[in-house]
Structure formats: C-alpha cells, structure tokens
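Field: COMPLEX_INPUT
Field: COMPONENT_COUNT = two
Field: RESIDUE_TOTAL = 785
Field: MODE = joint
Values follow.
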Amino acid sequence: MTVSEPKTVLETATALEARGAIVSYGKQRVLNGVTAGVRPGEVVGIAGPNGSGKTTLLRAMAGLVKLDSGSVNLNGKTLDEISPRERARQIGYMPQSAADHSFTALEFVLMGRYPHMGLFRLEGRSDLSFAENAMRRTETLEFANRRIQSLSGGEKQRVSLARLLAQQAKVLLMDEPTASLDLQHQLLTMATAREEAMNGVAVAVVLHDLSLAARHCDRLLLLNNGKLTAEGDPWSVVTQTNLRDIFSVDAAVEPEPISGKPMVSVLGVTGEGRGEIGKSPLRVHVICGAGSGRDLMHLLTLEGHTVSACVLGEGDADRKTALRLGIEHIASSPFSVISLDQDSAHRRLVRQADIVIVCEMAVGPGNLRNLEAAAEAKRLMLIARPEGAHWDYTDGYAGRVQDELETRGEIVNRDEVVKSVGRIT
Amino acid sequence: MLRTTVRKQRGSIAASSVLNRLILGAVVLGIGLLAATLVALSTGPVAIPFTDTLSALLDWAGFGESSASNTQQAVIENIRIPRVLLALGAGAGLGVAGVTMQGLFRNPLADPGIIGVSAGGALGAVIAIAAGLAATSTLFLPLFAFIGAGAATVIVFMVGIAAGGRVSMASLLLAGVAVSSFFGAITSAVIILTADLEAQRQMVFWLAGGIEGARWESVRIVLPIVLVGIAVLIAFARDLNLLLVGEDEARSLGVRVGLVRGVLLGIAALLTGTAVAFTGTIAFVGLVVPHSIRLIIGPDHRALLPLSALGGGLFLLIADTLARNVASPVEIRVGIITALTGAPFFLFLLIRQRTRTGLL
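Field: COMPLEX_OUTPUT
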C-alpha cells in the first residue's frame, strides 16, 4: 500500500491524528485500533461499507466520543489537554444531518462564531461578515431568514456547511456532507472543501460514494469492521480487489474521463448476495467488433454468465469493455488481418461455448475469420441486421457466410438477446 | 440582489438584533409590570387611589411625604409590596425554569415541574401541616416544601443517571413522571388520613397555590435566589441555544454538555423549588410564558431568558391581582387562575403551531 505524500510546505505536520483509537458502544466494538490523521492542506476521504466505523472515527477525531484506549492528537497535544472552547476554535465538525429547530439559517450559521465570542458578548460586525461570506460560498444567502425546520434536507446540509465555514477552524471534519445534495451542490461542497484545503486547512470527509471520494480527495482511508484496511492515493485504494473483498461487489475501476481519477462501475454483487441473478449460468461467446458487443457483454456478465469474446483489435471499443469486465478474448493489433494462430485460438473459445452470439458488426477482410468461426458453434444466435444496412466490405463473401449461418441459427432482435439466452437451460 | 437584502439586515438581524429584541421586549414588559404593580398595590379590600399609592411608594422608597393615610401606608408597605414582590419573584423563577427545561429536554411540553420538583414540594408541605409544624412557625411549611422538592429532584437525578450512564434526558423525563406520580399518591394518602378537618382544608388550599402568605421574610429569601439563578442561567444562554440545536453541535462548538446540563437542571430545580415552597404549586407559568415570548421574539435564549423572567413575573402578578379581586371579599387561589387561563391559551398555541411548524 503506497501512501502518497501531498506536496505542501507543511508536509511533516499532522494537524489531527487518531492513534490506536478503540471505541465501543456497549459491548459492540466499533473502532478497533485505528491510527489515521489529516494534514494541513489535504482533503482526506474516509470510506467503507455501512457499519465499518467511518462516522465513529470522524466523531472520535472531533472529540465527540470517549475512547476506550488510544488518543487523538491535535498538533502534538491530546484532545484531553485542550479546553473544549479552544478545541472548538481548532476543530470544526459537521454532523450527517441537522435536527429541526426554529432558529433562522443566519442565526444557526452565527453559532459557528460562539467559540470566538466572550461571555455575554453578542455577535459583532466581523462575526456577521464571516457568516455572510460562508453563506455566499454555500449559496444559502437566499434563505438566511428562513427557519431551519422549514428547509429541505439538502438546504439544511448546506446551511450546516456554512456554519462549519463560519467557525474558521483549522481542521474540518465532515460526515457525508453530500448525502442529500443534488449534483450541482455535491460539486460545490467538494470544491469548497478543496478551497479550504488550499488555504492550509486540514479536511477529512466521510463519503460513501467511492467515485466522488476518489475524484475529490488526495488520500483515502478505507475502513472495514472498525479497522483501517487500506490507505493511500485513490488509485491504490479504489481497486477491484478492495471492492470485492470489502464492499462485496464485482466492479470495474477505470479512469474518470475528465479528472483521470478512478471511477467505479458496479457490475453486480458477489457471492451470497447474488440471489436470483444467474440461476443457470452458461458459457456465452460474443462475436462482435467496433462497440457492437459492449452492452451485450456487460448485461450477460451481470446475468452471471461466463462470457468470452472473439478476436478484437487493440483500441477497439469492444476490446476495452472486455478488458474492463475481465472477459476472455483474443487480442490482435489494430486493423490487422486475423492470423491463423489467432483464428484457431478463437475457434477453441467458440467450441467451448454453450451458445455463440453474432452481433451486427461490419465485416471486412480483417475480421472475416471472426464471422467464419461462428460456423463451429454448438448453438447459434444472430442479431438481426437492420434492413438495407451496408455492412459487407468483402464483395459479397461475408454476406454468403452470414446467409449460411442464418440457416443454422436463430435470428433475434437486439433487445431480446439477453432474454433469449436466459431461456436456454 | 441577495447581497443587498443581507446588507440591509446587517444591523437588524445579527449584530444588534438579539439586543434590539431584548430591549424592545423589556420596554413593553416593563411598562406592563409598572402598570400591573400600581393596580395590584391599589386594589383589594382596602381600595387606595392611584395617586396615594404612588406617593406611598415614593415615601416607602425614601422620597417625599405620603399622601395616603397611616392604615393605607401600612397595608401597602407590609402586605401589598411583599405580595407583589413575591408574585414577581416566583413568576420570574417559574418562567426561566420553564425556558431552561424546554431547551434542555428539547421538548416543548417540558414544564418546571417535570422533574418531580412540584410533587416533592407538595408532599413536604402536606407533611409539615399534618405534623402540626406549620402552625408553630410560618417558615416551617416553606422549609418542608423545599426539602420535599429537593428530595424529589435528587431521586429523579439519581435514577436518571443510573438508567442512562450519564445524565440521559429521556430517562430523566421518565423518572420525573414516575416520581411525581409516586409522591402525588403519598400526598393524597396523607391528606385522606389526616383527621383534623382544618388541617385537611389547609392542605388542599396550599396545593391550589397562592401568594397571600407573602411576608417580607419570604421575599428576602425568594428574591436573592431568583435573581442569582436568573443571572447564572443567562450566562449559559448561548450553550442553551446550542443544546437546542443538537448535542453534537453543542459539543463540537465547545460546550461541556454534561456539566452544563447538570448546572442548568440544578438551577431550574432550585428556582422551581423556591417558588413552590412559598407559593404552593402554580401550574402553567413555565409553559405559557416562554411559549408566548418565543412566538414573538424567536428561540434565542439570550433574549428569551430575561424576557421570560419579566413575562413570568407579570403573568403571575396579574393572575394574583385577579385572584384577589374577581370574587372579593373571597380570594380565588392564584393557581386556579393560572390554570384556568393558561390551559386554554396553551391549547390554542398548540393548535396554532401544529398547523405551521414545530413548537421550539
């Protein structure tokens, strides 16, 4: 497991760190010796399945839960050595959801200033400008005078964030701050966390959306059963193995097109959780190309079938999908003619399959052998080609192969393929 | 556009808004208090013209010569001023105790009596009367009532703590209900088993709550306790705001939740116990007053607490003046007046609020 060091001037300083934290609720041990921290200038994501101890770790770091053993240190001092008021100036905590009450949004945000105010002192001009600025950043100014209890869940969450920002703490701990937000405000919230980090604040965020966490955090902590099971940059934590072992899902991890950060596509549940899906798994072989077999391979995998594919050239959209889904196929160089070796390997896959599906891809000299191999199928299904489509680039030879295949196989509409395969036992 | 809206509110909403609301409320309630005091001092079996009352007041305070007769002067100084002050003190104590309980329990129906204070006080008073001690000295009854109130509170706290680990609000509430019923049952038993009809009458009379026993010595005990108690509660006003918002928020914003809860509950119990000891059980002051004021000025305890003190005093003073005068020469008990006016008003608030949003 590699831990990436964020390149900041404060590289060595750990703002807030839990050391060997053990927490129990009654007899239930929820945190089982976790050592993890957050440094100034970085956004750390805390992820893990339900009940893994994410919230408890965050609350322990905020000083909200009693530790059975271990400690939480803020710049070298344990939280017990710091007065609650001083702690509140250093560490801000945003709970998962805010309770209903009749304070207005502005009054609520101003409460973030309480740790900075003397006894019997009322909010001054500077407190108000902190609050106003925080509300502008979270786009909550428009309901400054509405009562909290009249706001929607997402609006409340944004007002909570404004309260946290107004507190001007050096460490921000947020528990699922995006849980009830729409896409726009999810991004706004994560961007705000990033801005704070760029100003030297240490930010730790509990997120259950792994893709969101991977995209916006510098470092991820992965918890399972109260233990830290992985820690490091998003690519080292969000892996197919971790998703299978910890979240019990089969998933593909690929670069998110814009940020290049890992993005999770869940394919299905592993093991026991699978239930109805895949009652009678078959070996299904898909002959495709240029993206014609993408969704078919995906859907058949979801159904629990063991899928294989034909000879696919590098760069072919279907090849990418096959790689992502871990589907067995024969690789070739782009736009080259299928060699005899490749062809015989392909024919072996065709013979092993319970059923072979021929997609409506275009056929030219390069991939003609893919089509011809279908003749060895035990059972054949051909996807109906659209009327009048031009697909044969072999001067009619491929057309004759296709006609021959059609006499032996079943012709099925594209949207009925998966159902038809499901009927086969 | 939005920017300008908030700019405009700059002065009013935050920086001085708590203060503005507090000052405005204090002026309104202050005028009410002065008027009610004047009426209370002037009315009764011996009617005194307002001008004479004023000059008698000034004379008592050390300014000028009273135009009232000696009898009138004596009635005002020895009977009516202590009675007004006791009504104000007890009402203020009950009012702030109500606000505190509602904030701590995050429950709009929490009443100062909810942690068993009133039931304990009642039992103490009834025992003092049954034992014949109340007849020997006027301070025995309040002393016993206070001991009873204290005992009930301690029991409720211990049970609440034992049940919840630390001070658990839910178990406190339930323990309060149970202890109240238990003490109430013993009180009823003591009343029924008392053979002396006069003593029995006195007990029922005391239970209905009244301020007619007001003397300067009771005022000298009640007022300092109430004033100090209110001052301490106001010092915790911000903490109470945070506790109302949520325990996590309060803790993370620097409130020592356990300590603050203990102190606030203790003071609320002390104020309620003090009021109960000298005035009997007076219901609804701690419910009606805080809710009405919260409705007008909002939930911020920095304004709500002081104004509930003034409002509670005013409410109890008006109720007592009514109790003295509506069926003159017979006095209706003030506890009856507060319940008769308070209960319907509270029901009205309940219906009104339910159709909008929550109560707190």
